[in-house]
């Protein structure tokens, strides 16, 4: 547990650490020093490619391990349903605000015994520094390449600047200002560095992204699809400037920060339009799905009208199809290969409910929280508290079409209707007490079976559907037949960034110089493309009113994509009771349909007091590992920790 290695000092380790495996296969290069190796374009490219292995985004997992405490749990979007191994120990540490234990490699008890596995946000800290080391080594030696074209070298430099900014983005959005290294530390260098401010790190990230934008291509050839482009660099700039303009960082409320964020988003929107890139997928026909009481489409797993929108996230076949609105996504191409999942394993597959897959011997699940699901409007474009037609005793009908893409609820046709599947009910049964007077919960009775399926329960009364390919199997016949897109940036986020920043800088109907798009029009574009009406007039009369609907729109459009946790932090609302509480949907059979209970079931959001999170001011910025401060006391711990 105790370690004296100063993590960012790892950046000073010799170049050969990151590409030694490759060089072992190149006997002709044995004995060459670092500068000699970089004379060859192939080796230089291979060296830089090593940085991608350290890139653990918010939709990533290391190796084949899951993200033991994913953003969707931390953001109050869901709650883990795995009843063994790590979740029972790790969730309380987060909920009680014990970030020190979480960040120090593994959660430990008072006796020094590990009680859980290393969460991905801990790997993200250490591996980001390693990735920075690789990038800095490359940039220090790129001038030695003597057999590459200008276009090839510029493409590599663009990737390097993008990656360095991205690694620092992953570090600083959690921990605040650190030390922005553009050159690697030397092993014999005195370690007495001090932490810099977030604003200082931000300036360097933006400088790197401007460099990346100047070097990166508009698109890559087929061999290099998946590498960052100009659009990806601009999307990261949009995300960074929005974060910096928000109350967490922008404590004085400086309007220029909002102008900068609105401008960054506007520049990407104009760039995309000028180049015919990143067009929003049209699923406006979803307005016609029949999801009224016992509607023909209400309990279907998938409907034709929603398929275009659903294809942004999942699709048939093992080869990814990159949707038109995706700007940057993880590059792994296949999911089901020889009965297992390729590394890096997507976070979604391990946490969003893949316990239903036949043959899965290590199942997990995240159930959606009832209080989060209440954010989905009705199909008439009103919050459920504002729509007189909404009946809390029939909560699944006539909701925003995105509800039926994201949420799996009781009665939906089962994902796998297969005589050999674990669940033989044919429908998803999430009731506390169902028609037969039994627990639903979609459980498989273990009956002495050693398989671990029974150890996953849906406790929340709702499941996450957004990342579940219909009919997918873990292995065997019919397996290896679906893909999931691990989208890092997509255009809908950029329009929402624009709407938020433009509203703060210019009001609901103002526009950014050089653009004719208002904040209100931008948010309506996101709504209209899934068949939702424009934002209702009762929410558009002021900057303050529209701000709340923009925030709600982000919650719905970007749900379960690893974004909301950073949103509620940057808005400085994570400490509010509404974002700390955990509510499950309890659904109980009442004996038959009636005027009070149209489905025969009662529905009630029940607060789980024992799961309420602790969140104080200090929790807005995460601590750094204790080993950092022990090794270099001048590199101080995050304030409050």
UniProtKB/TrEMBL annotation:
<protein>
    <submittedName>
        <fullName>RagB/SusD family nutrient uptake outer membrane protein</fullName>
    </submittedName>
</protein>
<keyword id="KW-0472">Membrane</keyword>
<keyword id="KW-0998">Cell outer membrane</keyword>
<dbReference type="InterPro" id="IPR012944">
    <property type="entry name" value="SusD_RagB_dom"/>
</dbReference>
<dbReference type="InterPro" id="IPR011990">
    <property type="entry name" value="TPR-like_helical_dom_sf"/>
</dbReference>
<dbReference type="InterPro" id="IPR033985">
    <property type="entry name" value="SusD-like_N"/>
</dbReference>
<feature type="domain" description="SusD-like N-terminal">
    <location>
        <begin position="120"/>
        <end position="242"/>
    </location>
</feature>
<feature type="domain" description="RagB/SusD">
    <location>
        <begin position="364"/>
        <end position="641"/>
    </location>
</feature>
<dbReference type="Pfam" id="PF07980">
    <property type="entry name" value="SusD_RagB"/>
</dbReference>
<dbReference type="Pfam" id="PF14322">
    <property type="entry name" value="SusD-like_3"/>
</dbReference>
<keyword id="KW-0732">Signal</keyword>
<comment type="similarity">
    <text>Belongs to the SusD family.</text>
</comment>
């Amino acid at each position: 547990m105790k370690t004296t290695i100063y993590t960012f000092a790892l950046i000073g380790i010799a170049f050969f650490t990151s590409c030694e495996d490759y060089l072992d296969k190149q006997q002709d290069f044995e004995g060459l020093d670092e500068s000699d190796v970089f004379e060859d374009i192939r080796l230089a490219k291979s060296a830089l490619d090593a940085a991608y292995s350290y890139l653990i985004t918010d939709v990533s997992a290391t190796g084949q391990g899951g993200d033991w405490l994913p953003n969707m749990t931390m953001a109050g979007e869901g709650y883990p349903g795995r009843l063994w191994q790590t979740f029972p120990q790790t969730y309380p540490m987060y909920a009680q605000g014990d970030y020190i234990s979480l960040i120090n490699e593994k959660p430990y008890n008072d006796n020094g015994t590990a009680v859980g596995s290393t969460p991905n946000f801990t790997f993200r800290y250490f591996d980001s520094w390693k990735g920075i080391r690789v990038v800095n080594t490359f940039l220090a030696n790129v001038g030695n390449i003597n057999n590459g074209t200008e276009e090839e070298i510029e493409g590599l430099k663009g990737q390097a600047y993008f990656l360095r900014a991205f690694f620092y983005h992953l570090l600083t959005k959690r921990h605040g200002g650190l030390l922005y290294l553009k050159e690697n530390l030397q092993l014999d260098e005195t370690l007495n560095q001090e932490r810099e401010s977030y604003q200082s790190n931000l300036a360097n990230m933006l400088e790197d992204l401007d460099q990346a934008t100047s070097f990166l291509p508009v698109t890559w050839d087929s061999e290099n699809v998946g590498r960052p482009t100009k659009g990806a660099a601009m999307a990261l700039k949009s995300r960074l400037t929005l974060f910096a303009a928000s109350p967490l960082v922008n404590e004085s409320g400086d309007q220029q920060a909002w102008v900068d964020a609105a401008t960054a988003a506007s520049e990407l929107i104009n760039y995309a339009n000028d180049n015919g890139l990143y067009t929003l997928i049209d699923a406006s026909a979803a307005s016609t799905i029949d999801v009224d009481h016992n509607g023909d489409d209400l309990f279907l797993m998938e409907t034709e009208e929603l398929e275009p929108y659903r294809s942004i996230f999942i699709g048939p076949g093992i080869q990814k199809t990159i949707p038109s609105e995706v700007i940057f996504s993880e590059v792994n191409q296949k999911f089901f290969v020889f009965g297992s999942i390729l590394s890096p394993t997507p976070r979604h597959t391990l946490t969003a409910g893949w316990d239903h897959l036949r043959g899965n011997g290590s199942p997990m699940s995240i159930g959606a929280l009832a209080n989060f699901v209440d954010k989905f409007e009705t199909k008439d474009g009103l919050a459920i508290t504002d729509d007189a037609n909404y009946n809390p005793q029939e909560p699944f009908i006539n909701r925003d079409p995105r509800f039926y893409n994201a949420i799996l609820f009781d009665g939906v046709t089962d994902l796998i209707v297969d005589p050999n599947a674990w669940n033989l009910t044919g429908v998803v049964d999430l009731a506390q007490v169902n028609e037969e007077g039994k627990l639903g919960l979609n459980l498989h009775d273990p009956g002495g079976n050693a398989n671990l399926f029974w150890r996953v329960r849906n406790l929340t009364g709702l499941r996450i559907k957004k990342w579940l390919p219909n009919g997918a199997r873990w292995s065997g016949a019919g397996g290896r037949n679906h893909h999931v897109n691990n989208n890092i940036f997509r255009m809908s986020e950029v329009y929402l960034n624009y709407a938020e920043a433009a509203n703060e800088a210019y009001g609901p109907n103002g526009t950014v110089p050089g653009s004719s798009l208002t904040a209100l029009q931008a948010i309506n574009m996101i709504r209209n493309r899934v068949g939702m009406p424009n934002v209702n007039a009762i929410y558009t009369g002021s900057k303050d009113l529209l701000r709340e609907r923009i925030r709600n729109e982000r919650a719905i459009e970007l749900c379960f994509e690893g974004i909301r946790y950073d949103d509620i932090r940057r808005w400085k609302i994570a400490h509010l009771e509404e974002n700390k509480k955990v509510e499950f949907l309890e659904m109980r059979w009442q004996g038959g349909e009636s005027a009070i209970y149209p489905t025969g079931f009662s529905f009630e959001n029940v607060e789980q007091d024992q799961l309420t999170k602790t969140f104080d001011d200090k929790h807005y910025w995460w601590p750094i590992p204790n080993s950092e401060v022990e090794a270099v006391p001048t590199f101080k711990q995050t304030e409050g920790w």
